[in-house]
Amino acid sequence: MTTEWERLLKRAEECCSGCGKGLRNGDVVTTLELGAESFTRREWCAPCFEEREPPAFSFWKRTLAKGQSRRRLDLAYLAELFRRLDGRDDAMAKRLRWIAALLLLRKKLLEEKGRSSVDGREQLHLAFRREEREWCVEDPGLDADSFQSIEADLGRIFDLEGDAAKDGSAQPPRTP
Fold first, then answer.
1. Predicted structure pTM score
2. What is the edge-to-edge ordering of all strands in the sheet holding 26-34?
3. Distance between CA atoms of 166 and 137, rounded to whole angstroms?
4. How many CA atoms lie within 13 Å of 131's alpha carbon, on the beta-carbon side?
């Protein structure tokens, strides 16, 4: 159960609460506003913050660098996706699970326990840190086109924005 403070400090919004434009470059102001029953967090571009009424209960400013992406991959959701794909036999689920495993390995949420080969396909034996259960993930043999398709799907699932996803410059990760 989340507390009021945890709910309040949720992730920052991507759009200005005033004009609705995306917050990409420049100054961003986050406000806490006291409502009838609770606080509300809002994100503002600098011009909209200056024009808003009434004054905020509290606020802080930060600067987004040019080209800085505000969206980050939510690793908890990615780990949950990885777990839920366990046991699914369709090709898309296997490919998605492989990519999720590689991302979680790279972020050190999963650790490699071993490798094996079954019918010429490599299998990784993985475990989440501080957990006993071992997960077996089979390499689906992704080519570059398949990888980019999965990457685009993950971007849509997690609502990510990134230069690599937009310009197609991402390369498949190498197997650890």
1. 0.51
2. 39-45, 26-34, 58-64
3. 28
4. 13
Q: How far apart are the first and last CA of the chain?
A: 37
Residue type, 142: L
Evaluate whether 79 touches 131 at the Cβ level (below 8 Å). no
CA distances from 26 to 41, 54, 64, 73 (A): 19, 23, 5, 22
Q: Which residues contact 37 (CB under 8 A, 6 or more apart)?
A: none
> Which tokens hold the place of 101?
């495993």
Instruction: List, for residues 15-65, the tens digit of each pLDDT value.
Output: 788 887 777 666 788 887 777 767 778 888 888 888 887 777 788 887 766
Give the tokens for residue 63.
């600067």
